Amino acid sequence: MLNISFESKLPQTEKSIFSKMSAIANEYKAINLSQGFPNFDPDFTLIELVHKYMKAGKNQYAPMAGTPELLQAIKLKIKAHRGLEIHEDQLCITAGATQAIYTAISAVVKPGDEVICIDPAYDSYKPAIITNGGQPISYGLEAPSFKIDWDKFEALMNAKTKLLILNNPHNPLGICYSKEDLTRLGQLAEKYDCLVISDEVYEHLVFDDQKHISALEIPSLKDRSFVTYSFGKTFHITGWKMGYCIASPLLMEEFKKIHQFTVFSVNTPAQLAIAEYLGMNSWKTLPAFFQQKRDLLMQYLDQSPFQVKASAGTYFQLVDYSAISQQVDTEFAMELIKSIGVATIPVSVFYDQAPKQQLLRICFAKTDELLHQAGERMISLNN
Ligand code: PMP
Ligand code: GLN
Description:
Blueprint: H1 17-27, E1 31-32, H2 44-55, H3 68-82, E2 91-94, H4 96-108, E3 114-119, H5 125-131, E4 135-140, H6 150-154, E5 161-167, H7 179-191, E6 195-199, H8 219-222, E7 225-230, H9 231-234, E8 243-246, H10 249-262, H11 268-278, H12 286-303, E9 316-320, H13 329-340, E10 342-343, E11 345-346, E12 359-363, H14 368-379
Parallel strand pairs: 1-10, 3-4, 3-5, 5-6, 6-7
Antiparallel strand pairs: 2-8, 7-8, 9-12, 11-12
């Protein structure tokens, strides 16, 4: 045994639920609808573009905040998508949204600061807060409406509150927040003079002709928010770990101070390829593409004993299994892998203190063929 006196910064942290469930799915040869990644390839054009730039010698460090080509392409995309003008000093390309979120937290959270997270919360938020000496404070949402009661939310705020984190569209709930919700968040951020991370990685995955509202579009939020995005989610390239952050120049300056000493810069040929691909308006077809998959899954779920309300955004669908089993969700998720060979994510893992609810998360970023197979298996639960 090594004689080292050492205290873990994250003593409670285990392997992520996503890695765990994917490993179990592989072990049981189950259909993996757990971890959120597509089981299909990105557009071959995008792959060829990376090759093109690699062969053209674009293989060395990119500028710290990103290549001029990608920064420009993002500015043009935001102008086309939202009609907003973003300036170069508001942007930084990151190694995925997870890094952007961690960097934003590191840039502003000091020991003793409180950060409010909305549970169910994406798994990277709280460890990032704790590692930086902050104290995560959970505000828990409950089935069936999962509505935010802003008075109860405000009751958690005080002079120590430094940061609020919102994920919109919401993983795993599949909710898109309204202008009223975002305005309320902005009012509270102003009142308590705190900052916001608006995690918008699923901005293009919104259904039924809704429009996703960004924190960038809310006057009280736009200057006090770090807004994070992921090309992994947008272009079916989760393994490339490419994303970006937008913030007001003052916040972005602090963000870059951390970014330059943790990552410095991000994959050059991938940045150049994504820049060119963004110029092809490749993001415009995403809502229809994923809505077809959601609808296909819903056709099966409607015939199954699961109770469901169609997801409004993200590529996740929540299902209530209370008509099938009274087991807790972690046990039921295991049961489902063994009985019908379908892997899902138990929703309680996204909570500090999970309410009594029987919910699983299903990822529908899968080929139609796989969704048909999984759907048939879920219908078989009627027998
Ligand atoms: N936020 C949310 C809500 C997510 O679901 C994910 C998972 N992709 C991320 C952030 C991280 O994105 P990335 O893979 O680009 O790090
Ligand atoms: N964002 C993905 C999900 O929610 C997983 C990312 C990861 O495995 N870290 O399933």
